Structure to design on (171 residues):
């Protein structure tokens, strides 16, 4: 009985949030599209903050989380939204419980400095084509190496299938 009471009290005191950054273009693969790819995610969190990939939404998301008094913060980003996801970890003073990078774009400013231990990088460089071979692919491979065993690569998944597969596998 004491265990059940503790569990109920813990659940009542937790206030969880998930921040989701969608991909490019926002009108096609942004936050609204992500809502259709992450079935049931809203049932797992007290609050879900949906954002598009634009940099201004990173600032908005950080402010919303700081104002929210959350006990657990998870952040995921798909494609171009992946940049905002890892920047969220490194540009805010907010301690993350989980960071998910879903076939993300990567910029030269990547860093794992404030990544939580259970961060996941789920990607397929074959989805990015020759245009990105010397930029995103290089940085994504460097990030995967820096993350060590946390990085996962699956060459059989198409870019637009990644959000649902990520949700099924890691969330």
């Amino acid at each position: 009985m004491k265990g059940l009471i503790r569990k109920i009290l813990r659940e009542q005191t937790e206030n969880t949030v998930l921040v989701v950054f969608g991909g490019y273009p926002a009108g096609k693969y942004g936050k609204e599209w992500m809502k259709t790819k992450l079935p049931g995610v809203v049932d797992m969190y007290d609050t879900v903050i949906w954002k598009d990939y634009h940099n201004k939404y990173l600032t908005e998301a950080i402010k919303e989380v700081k104002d929210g008094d959350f006990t657990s913060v998870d952040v995921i980003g798909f494609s171009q939204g992946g940049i905002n996801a890892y920047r969220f970890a490194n540009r805010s003073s907010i301690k993350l419980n989980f960071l998910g990078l879903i076939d993300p774009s990567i910029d030269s400013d990547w860093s794992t400095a404030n990544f939580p231990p259970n961060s996941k990088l789920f990607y397929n460089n074959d989805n990015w084509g020759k245009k990105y071979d010397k930029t995103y692919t290089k940085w994504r491979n460097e990030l995967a190496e820096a993350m060590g065993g946390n990085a996962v690569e699956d060459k059989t998944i198409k870019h637009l299938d990644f959000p649902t597969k990520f949700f099924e596998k890691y969330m």
About this structure: Residues 55-68 form the longest helix (14 residues).
